[in-house]
What we know:
The protein is mainly alpha-helical. It has a domain at 55-114. Helices cover 47% and strands 3% of the residues. It is built from seven helices and two strands, in the order H-H-E-H-H-H-E-H-H. It has helices spanning 2-19, 55-62, 72-77, 81-85, 87-90, 100-108, 110-114; strands spanning 70-71, 97-98. Strands 1-2 form a two-stranded antiparallel ribbon. The protein starts with a helix and ends with a helix.
Amino acid sequence: xxxxxxxxxxxxxxxxxxxxxxxxxxxxxxxxxxxxxxxxxxxxxxxxxxxxxxxxxxxxxxxxxxxxxxxxxxxxxxxxxxxxxxxxxxxxxxxxxxxxxxxxxxxxxxxxxxxxx
Length: 117
């Protein structure tokens, strides 16, 4: 009985040690050619953000009559949201149109300093 228990103890204690060893095949050192790297494509830089047109450029573009006077309808069609929003405040003389000088005067006012045109 002692012999069986002793044999069993040896098997149980030696089993995990044997399970951790791995057999590896012998490696041969044959000369190998250097690995050829595939050509890498140049990293493209992200496209720069398009420059927003200046207020004068947007005003001139919206002023389809090219008379220096921008009407509310022209401002709407030119997608000048800030001008449309504050048109009544900019048009002090209630002429029905505004000029670049009117806009500059409005920008100097307290309300105009906060407005985004």
